[in-house]
Amino acid sequence: MFLDPKFYLRIFWTRLPIFLAMLFAAMLAGFILIKTLPTVYRAQAILLVENSQIPTTLATSTVSTDLTEQIQIIQQRLMTRENLLDLAHKFDLYADQPDMQPDEIVESMRDRIDIYLAGGRGRVTTATISAEASSGAAAAGIVNELVTRALGQDAAFRTEVAADTLTFFKNEVARLGEELSISDKRILDFKNENVDALPETQEYRLSRQSQLQERLAQTQREISQLGEQRRRLVDLFESTGRADLVQQRPLSPEEQELRALQSELREALAVFSTTNPKVVALQNRVNRLEAELAGAATEPEDGTNPRESVFRAQLVEIDSQLNSLETLADGLEVEIGALRENIEQTPSNAITLNAMERDRDNVQIQYDTAVSRLSQAATGERIEVMSKGQRLSVIERADIPTKPAKPRRLMIAAGAVAAGLFLGAAMVLLLEFLHPKIRQPSELTKKLGITPLGTLPFVEPPRKSWGWGRRRYGVAALAMIVLALVTGLLAVDQQLLPLEQLAEKIMAHAKL
């Protein structure tokens, strides 16, 4: 069994009006769709994400937002409800729809506007902003307005972040400075309260304690010696009535003067003669002092014993020395005790002071770090104020489009023709499959189970055949004319002048 092209061609020719009707219907539907769809113009602008203009080895910005995140932040700020309503009102996009609700306007504006990021690692990063509107001027105006706001928001965002960073570190430096001052004051107060028990003076206190202990031991020895001397003096006076220890007493002023004059007299005699006036004067003074001392040593008229007076004077002198030494020893013991107490307190004070100084050093480190970062933040803020850091710049602003982006009339027309051809062919095949008549000899064998010896084709009368053929040719010619007309109108509308404007010009010319 094989296919007979002539048979199927005859079938197609028989069904040609149906095929042309489906093709015409599809093309008519496409033409109506083209004319009913609103004209949409699309404009776009391209922004470039530029890197910092200052080498990062010299100075860095304090704004470290990722590029994708930055674009997303700008996109979210541009697509806020307030901004979208402001754009719609500014360009009168929905002036012909006064009953449209704000929520519907916002949803429609979000469908009109598209912002996306292109590029990546090792490639230039760009951001494209596009918008659709019923006129090219409105589309370009929306895009340029979005570009202006994007640049402003980018600069404001980066400047705001840099300023916030600078303010933060200023506050941090001030706070740490106050903590540092409080720590210094606390350490100073502690040292003033424990000035006698600080670890840095521990060595001096230990040396002082050793010196005082030696001096106390010496004082105690002197006290012991004076006590022994007093006891022997008393024993000697009680047993013999003598006070030989008087030689050990200190010389009186008169005795000291006498000894000085005697020494001066000996020196004068070594130089001058005995008749020299100076020698004579010194000799007279020495004699007079000796006479006075001799008279003071004689027994007084009241009958008192001069030895007993000397003895008692020596006792008073020894007792006075003992009192002085005991007072000195008591003072030394008090000072040694205070030093011992301070020495015992020094280790605990050292621990406390070390903890306070450690806290102060930690605050100092934080303060120094904050000051360094404050300097960096000030540099970064200056970079952003002068727009020398990473920023958005315009590569291409939106121009007013001259051709609409939607609908794509040629694509719709081509789709309508393709759909008409497919539907026509499908309808022809469907009708043929549903036709109950037997048309081929093979169908006799298949349906009746017989094998014919021969077949005779059905031949229509010449007159009838000629009339039906003329109708078919007329329908085909009409369909071709309609197809050519539709195609020509579509070409004029797409390439030369929109049909609405052409109709307006024709009507204006007709009125004239």
From TrEMBL:
The keyword Coiled coil applies. InterPro entries: Bact_polysacc_biosynth/exp. Keywords: Coiled coil, Membrane, Transmembrane, Transmembrane helix. The chain crosses the membrane at residues 12-34, 410-431, 473-492. It comes from the Bacteria. Residues 209-236, 279-342 form a coiled coil. This is Polysaccharide chain length determinant protein, PEP-CTERM locus subfamily.
